[in-house]
Amino acid sequence: MADAVPESYVALALSLADAAGEKIRPYFRTAVAVDAKPDATPVTIADREAERAMREIIARQAPGHGIIGEEEGRTNADAEWVWCLDPIDGTKAFITGKPMFGTLVSLVHRGTPVLGIIDQPVSRERWLGVAARATTFNGGPCATRKCPALKDAMLNATTPEMFVGTDAAAFTRLVKSVRHALYGGDCYAYGLLARGYIDLVVECDLKPWDFCALAPIIAGAGGGMVDWRGAPLTLASDGRVIAAGDPALIGSAQRALAS
Predict the structure, then answer these.
(1) Which of 22, 33, 50, 129 is most exposed, with the fewest beta carbons within 10 Å of its own?
(2) Which CATH number fits domain 7-141: 3.40.1190.10, 3.90.850.10, 3.30.540.10, 3.10.20.90?
């Protein structure tokens, strides 16, 4: 991993989020057409235009970098520096008029996420996490809260339907161990965790563009984000994640999932 993320790359990441927001905002709460992708998940012109705008900026300003995007796939994905882009994380929320979605921008260095942005383009809320720096929310301080006991934790997942088979049984055990379980929010829930409103987010079946931006944000806010085995997240991670505002929760969440 690089000792520090170059400041020019941080500026580039911010410009990508700006460009995506310019494309997304005009379509929010309009009669936008919704197409179904091969996996049956929805996609709109807003998703496509936002990713295309980000890719064009990267091609001009960092032509040697790779890109992994939800809508347009992989370009030079074996590069030392790779951008992971999710133009609208939470497209179902977007198309139903709910402002619980966000643009995810991540920079990965040799497989490890080192920079992440969650940008809510309608409410103009932005989280920025950079390796070895404190996370910011709209440019100001952003910190998780203490909650070392699982029984006191507020747990969030986008939907219980993402858990199937043994994962569903594991998640049910975890739900029974926490104070309350809530659903919805996609990447926005991780932003709320970083700000100290949620204690634990546990999910599975995520793709790199879903989780790479989140890990630096959570870490820089004082929390921790790992896979279900406790390993740091990389491009090769299997999509099962634990994000905890208080790192002390991670071990107890792992034990609940595995018991």
Answers:
(1) 33
(2) 3.30.540.10
